[in-house]
């Protein structure tokens, strides 16, 4: 069955934008999606991956290396001469199940084979599969903290290092980490929360018209997926083009001092810890500008992305009972009057 088209997803604008921004600039860090069950979180990620242009890869490489990347960065490509012909592969979306062992996630070094045959035997794990794509964890708040920490480390560095009893192996693992969860079922530690680039909230739509739209589209898709996808092919192509141009434009988008000053004032008003908030705000606003074909970041970009970039970085304020989204909205109104 073809994937449900991204452009056919009704409402959930904040989540869609956060995912698009991560696709424009994966260095903004992972995306955290909090909210009700059945709001189409995993549908959106799969749809986004299917929308992205397929990628050139080195045939036979378990990490699906980019043929333009240096072979030394990959244990497979360093040993095997690169074939003349490349393959086209879809952008991977890898699901990380909650019960997965660390070996299954990071990969396993076979010590016995190493000792008896003197060769480094490595069984690549889910992080290898996710290279150049997305790693999706449903209910990330139920995953063990040390595993979340490890995933965030690898996502930030783009390299997975596996070490066991004196043996070690490194392989490329560049991916966008997408975690979803229901905050009622357990919270993420604040130290982990703020390492995600963007956080968005999704709710089941309450507007009747939107609900009808969701039901109709889901029904039409399930009855005839091919016809449904064909009907959205044009808008999918258009969005794909927009993403490709955004990626090309990104390196030349200008971030003027005035925008950085606004970002700093916003973070000061909210009392976010450290400078990670500003850094993320700058990067995400730049990716948003690129997505919209703008060559300069403006306050408008900052305002729109501020809730997703900052709401998970606020310290608890016992005197302020309002939710984090409301606090960001209020700070935005203070810093950008009018
Ligand atoms: Zn490789």
TrEMBL record:
Residues 27-206 form the AAA+ ATPase domain. It is an enzyme of class 6 (ligase). Pfam families: AAA_lid_2, Mg_chelatase. SMART domains: AAA (SM00382). The keyword Ligase applies. SUPFAM superfamilies: P-loop containing nucleoside triphosphate hydrolases. Pathway: Porphyrin-containing compound metabolism; bacteriochlorophyll biosynthesis. It catalyses: protoporphyrin IX + Mg(2+) + ATP + H2O = Mg-protoporphyrin IX + ADP + phosphate + 3 H(+). InterPro entries: AAA+_ATPase (IPR003593), CHLI-like (IPR045006), ChlI/MoxR_AAA_lid (IPR041628), Mg_chelatase_ATPase-isu (IPR011775), Mg_chelatse_chII-like_cat_dom (IPR000523), P-loop_NTPase (IPR027417). Keywords: ATP-binding, Bacteriochlorophyll biosynthesis, Chlorophyll biosynthesis, Ligase, Nucleotide-binding, Photosynthesis. Gene3D superfamilies: Magnesium chelatase subunit I, C-Terminal domain (1.10.8.80), P-loop containing nucleotide triphosphate hydrolases (3.40.50.300). It comes from the Bacteria. Belongs to the Mg-chelatase subunits D/I family. Involved in bacteriochlorophyll biosynthesis; introduces a magnesium ion into protoporphyrin IX to yield Mg-protoporphyrin IX. This is Mg-protoporphyrin IX chelatase. It comes from Methylobacterium thuringiense. The lineage of its organism: Bacteria, Pseudomonadati, Pseudomonadota, Alphaproteobacteria, Hyphomicrobiales. The gene is bchI.
């Amino acid at each position: 069955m073809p994937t449900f088209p991204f452009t056919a997803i009704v409402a959930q604008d904040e989540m869609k934008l956060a995912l698009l921004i991560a696709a424009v600039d994966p260095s903004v860090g992972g995306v955290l999606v909090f909210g009700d069950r059945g709001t189409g979180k995993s549908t959106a990620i799969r749809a986004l991956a299917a929308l992205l242009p397929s990628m050139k890869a080195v045939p036979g490489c378990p990490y699906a290396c980019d043929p333009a990347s240096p072979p030394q960065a990959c244990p497979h490509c360093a040993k095997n001469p690169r074939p003349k012909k490349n393959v086209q592969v879809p952008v991977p979306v890898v699901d990380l199940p909650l019960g997965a062992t660390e070996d299954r996630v990071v990969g396993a070094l076979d010590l016995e084979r190493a000792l008896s045959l003197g060769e480094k035997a490595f069984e690549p794990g889910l992080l290898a599969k996710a290279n150049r794509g997305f790693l999706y964890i449903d209910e990330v708040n139920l995953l063990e903290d040390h595993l979340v920490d490890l995933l965030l480390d690898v996502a930030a560095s783009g390299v997975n290092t596996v070490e066991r009893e004196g043996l070690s192996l490194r392989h490329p693992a560049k991916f966008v980490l997408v975690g979803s969860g229901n905050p009622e079922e357990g919270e993420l530690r604040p130290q982990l929360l703020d390492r995600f680039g963007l956080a968005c909230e999704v709710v089941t739509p309450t507007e009747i018209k939107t609900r009808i739209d969701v039901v109709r589209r889901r029904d039409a898709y399930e009855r005839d997926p091919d016809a449904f996808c064909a009907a959205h092919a044009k808008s999918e192509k258009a969005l794909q083009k927009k993403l490709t141009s955004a990626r090309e434009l990104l390196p030349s988008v200008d971030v003027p001092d005035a925008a950085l000053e606004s970002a700093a004032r916003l973070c000061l008003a909210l009392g976010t810890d450290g400078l990670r908030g500003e850094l993320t705000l700058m990067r995400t606003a730049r990716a948003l500008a690129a997505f919209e074909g703008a060559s300069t970041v403006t306050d408008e970009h900052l305002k729109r992305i501020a809730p997703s970039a900052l709401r998970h970085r606020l310290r608890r304020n016992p005197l302020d009972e309002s939710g984090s989204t409301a606090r960001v909205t209020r700070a935005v109104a203070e810093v950008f009057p009018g």
